[in-house]
Amino acid sequence: MEIRSTTDEDLDVFVDTVHAAFGRFPETPVEGGGLWWSALEMDRCLLAVTADGRPVGTAATHSFELTLPGEILVPAPGVTAVGVLPSHRRQGVLSAMMLHQLTELRARGEFLSVLLASEAPIYGRFGYGPATYTARLKVPRHAAALTVPRAGAVAHAPATGSGNGSVEVLRRADCGEILEEVYDRYRRAQPGALSRPHRWWALRAGQPPISPAPRYVAVHRDADGVPDGYASYSIESGTLTVDETITADDAVFTALARFVLGHDLVSQVVFQHVPPEHPLRWQLADFRAGEVSGDMDWLWVRLLDVPRALTARGWFMDGELVLDVEDPFLGGHGRYLLTVRDGKAACVPTDREPDLSLDIRDLGSVYLGGTAPSTLVRAGHIRAHRPGTATLADALFRADRSPHCLHWF
Fold first, then answer.
1. Is 409 designated active site?
2. Which of 295, 315, 349 represents a domain boundary (last residue)?
3. Is 123 a catalytic residue?
4. Which of 26, 48, 51, 149 is 20 to 30 A from 364 (CA-CA)?
């Protein structure tokens, strides 16, 4: 078997192979684009080919930027379109492709990669760990009233006609540039968020509101008329479903939530992709009215160069830890002294006794601050060698805000 890079001429073969791997058929093109594979970068795709030339496996990466704690942007290859034909599963094809891909990414100088896992048990063995989480919040229309903040905050300002801003309803087809600009400002401030390259918007390759699927968009504008948030939504059978609410401002989120919760002729509102610990549920006058479901992992992170990764992100307290890190899939092992001073980290090899022993997948999970190291200690995955070490690690790896990713790829 050979694993080789693809060219533009391989697009049809690649697309047919990955669809066959998942037992599906390619969608019929629609006016305005919208096919997810139109965003593929063929020089970043791989084909696994048998000795007689038959394609049996696929893998690819997108060129993204990932926002780290501290509003630091770094390159982050987004692994996608990974599949093996049913006739060739459990024969080492997937492992060979993953090894080839990770080795290639390292050779390019990448220090991490990310993916969305189709099945949770698959990617841990290749060093990926779940790092951001998301959930769905369903609110019945009859119990959708928001309470007045007891601290006197401005988050309860009316969504329209106030000095704090206004909401305008537009069709998705009429506000593409606004969505792109607002999302880009948001993702630069949100840890765990991925960039959406312009070509994705231009090709409309993805899920709503990127795709051509008809949507209404509630666009929030500040007092000067500048768009600073949006909520993409659709209504079917009495349910208003919000694809995503994009803003870095809690007051703007509240204004958009108030707008959709007040929509007439719907029986319930469903917010997709609500970040963990988001305050919206607490803002409901009836706390029990908000039903949380679909709580799941979203972005998985894989570190390829531990010192570069740990020194790249921002930190919010001083301290030091000795980390003993195993990387079974790539055959690596390292012990590192992580020292944080004034928001910056140094990470160097050391022979000191470890404070924490952990697998590379566990380091990926805690890297963005969305998974507490103590949780993985209690789960038996990370070993804390001294009392208090897990508590220190929790405080040290904490992010400035909870990491969240809602981009699909």
1. yes
2. 295
3. yes
4. 48
